[in-house]
Amino acid sequence: MLGHISKTHEPATCVVCRREGRPGEQFHYVTGLGAVCMRCGLELVECSSCGKRVKRITITVLRGRALCLTCYKAERERGEKRILKEVVADSLEALMKKVAESTPEGFRFVGVRLKTSSKTTWQAEYEREDIFEMRCS
Ligand SMILES: [Zn+2]
Ligand SMILES: [Zn+2]
To answer: Which residue among 3, 38, 73, 121 is least crowded, i.e. fewest CB within 10 A of its CB?
Structure first.
């Protein structure tokens, strides 16, 4: 549960109550929101997606929506930008064929590398088409 929460180093200003932290006071960083003091962090907020009431320090704000951990994970998976797929092939020819065949819909093949300590297992990387185009144009 602590994955996306980290302590901020400097005394920060709470984005919720605008109170400045005293030196040494613990603030929590909420992804997409900013630093919150413990009091605000422990307040219950409603998840924009499922409506569950959860502590503010456990939410992630994504495109303006506060999401609980479960919804955030679901959302992130749906919005995957890159996909890594393992492809087993013993020749370059077979590899390229398999890579092309296993391209997920809406994705572009961007690269391949041999899996660490393997001679036949490759990791093919695909990037979501819209991201790919944004980067290349
Ligand atoms: Zn606060
Ligand atoms: Zn939720």
So the answer is: 3
